[in-house]
Amino acid sequence: MTLQLPKGTRDLKPEEAIVRNKIVDTLKETFELYGYNPLETPVLEKYELLASKYAGGAEILKETFKLKDQGDRELGLRYDLTVPMCRFIAMNPNLKMPFKRYAIGDVFRDGPVESARYRQFTQCDVDVVGIKGMAADAEVITLANRVFKKLGFETIVRVNNRKLLNELLEYCGVKKDKLEAVILSIDKLGKFGADAVKKELKDKKIGNETIEKTIKIINIKGKNTEKINEIKKIIANSEGIKEIEELIGILNIAKVNAEFDVSLARGLTYYTRTVLEVFLKNSKVRSAVCAGGRYDNMIGAFLGKGEYPAVGLSFGLDRIYDAYAEKINSIKKTTAQVFIAPIGTFEQSLKIAEELRNEGINADIDLAGRGPSKNLQYANSMGIPYVLFVGEEELRQGKVKLKDMNSGKEQLMTAEELVVFLQENLK
User: Fold this and answer.
1) Percentage of residues in the chain with pLDDT exceeding 70?
2) Which of 40, 49, 96, 138 has its CA 20 to 30 A from that of 87?
3) Reported pTM
4) Residues 41 and 157 in one domain
């Protein structure tokens, strides 16, 4: 047997998982700062739910992992965290509104494997259910901006409105039954360019005049106000453009810069109004690290109640990790903050280790009975900042010896002094 990973998956070494967990902690802290609460849903869902016309649509269904259980029931691995959340709300109609949740979990897509794209990847989602206005849309964008600031990134936020895009496409001559197909093609504009999109639209039996008109309109350039004014000349009393104006106005108050991008489509069919993507400046990761929008019809469709307002954002943890790992100078190989090296004093050393842990200090201890030099080598190779030597002579004095691995300085101190020193210097 040849040992190898399935295509589109990867292992994370401890030092990689440490970085990843820091990102997750930052996400959780920010989500809860804005009043979002955790929700967990199963990895497995009924395939019928995932394949529903109210879910992700035909394009994403092509990438859905399908399987059967021993009862011959059709199941699927979730391809996002939004559809399961909508199912949860539909099954719990008495939830207090607005419902603000976050979820962090693995999703699966059997799609092409590219740089920074995997078949198993972790999404970190925030959603607001039960609010119609653009205030909720602005809040999730503001939240995303804060997350990336905490991680040390500058961002490019792009926003559009699917209702507006539909209005513009109809103006260009696209028939209603072709709207979703055309939007799927437009979504590829930034990746493949105008010529490739034009060809794809021709293959979808869209007329040349309509294609040229569409490409021209969605490529409108200029500042946000200039684009908005230009569109107002084309479509009077557009509900979509009013929402874009409202959204950008609220974001300006929150001091979050967002670019109105008429070509932004987002391929999933459940989006109804706001769509958005967040990119990182000065990063090798070119794909969006965060994306989402408003999906007002999905939950209501599951409930049979029509429109049920909801807006959400999904953070691509794997892409964020790739970008973050690229920018930091050094990566921790262990979570240990101090390494305890017993010198014939294992029992006493173990007690000291537990005392440090009780104080919230991450303490590792030599379990192999190695000598001082080998313990120093080990601690140095793992990047542990402090080594604590516990010898019989030191213990007779009621003290221990602490070595700073960066400076090389050693000092004797009592157990109480040790705790205070480490708490102050490990902040």
Assistant:
1) 99
2) 138
3) 0.81
4) yes
